[in-house]
Design brief:
about 190 residues, alpha+beta, Rec A Protein, domain 2, four-stranded antiparallel beta sheet, three-stranded antiparallel beta sheet, 6 helices, ATP binding
């Protein structure tokens, strides 16, 4: 066992209990290295041994998948996040979003992506439309249009959220279930 791996294992054994008691989240950022001569499986590995992988509750693989450009100028990155390990929720989920330099994660870009996916925003060639409104030619122009028209962006967000909301529950039914289960000892 390498010295760095041994130190990581000893430190994480001590730190995890303290983190749990203080209800604190620790975020570790690590880089990938290439293993030489690997024919099967992923040739990528992280430094520091296996302790960090073992003690982690959630592990994310974050990768830039493309550069966003406005003409010839780079304005951001398209990023993919894969959940590699998750003890808190179902693992192996995946998300893609735009990160705009100087701004952060693009809410409007996510609205366009989700809107196209569920059919709220229509895409014909390079043109994006919402109902009778032309959002723009190309995703960057459509995103800029939504930034300039926040009311329209909020309307699109409302339709997207409405698509994913569960069926409304009858309050009388909820009260009856609560009353019935309150008498049961678990």
């Amino acid at each position: 066992m390498g010295l760095q791996a041994r130190l990581m294992s000893q430190a994480l054994r001590k730190v995890t209990g303290a983190l749990h008691q203080s209800k604190t989240t620790a975020i570790f950022i690590n880089q990938l290295r290439e293993k030489i001569g690997v024919f099967f499986g992923s040739p990528e590995t992280t430094t520091g041994g296996k302790a960090l992988k073992f003690y982690a509750s959630v592990r994310l693989d974050i990768r830039r998948i493309e550069t966003l450009k406005d003409g010839t100028e780079s304005v951001g990155n398209r990023t993919r996040v894969k959940v590699v390990k998750n003890k808190m929720a179902p693992p192996f989920k995946q998300a893609e979003f735009d990160i705009i330099y100087g701004t952060g994660i693009s809410r409007e870009g996510s609205l366009i992506d989700m809107g196209v996916e569920i059919g709220v925003v229509k895409k014909a060639g390079a043109w994006y439309t919402y109902e009778a409104d032309q959002l723009g030619q190309g995703k960057e122009n459509a995103r800029a249009f939504l930034v300039d028209n926040p009311d329209l962006a909020n309307e699109i967000e409302g339709k997207i959220r409405g698509h994913f909301v569960a069926v409304e529950v009858d309050p009388e039914l909820v009260a009856a279930i609560d009353e019935a289960t309150s008498e049961v000892d678990f």
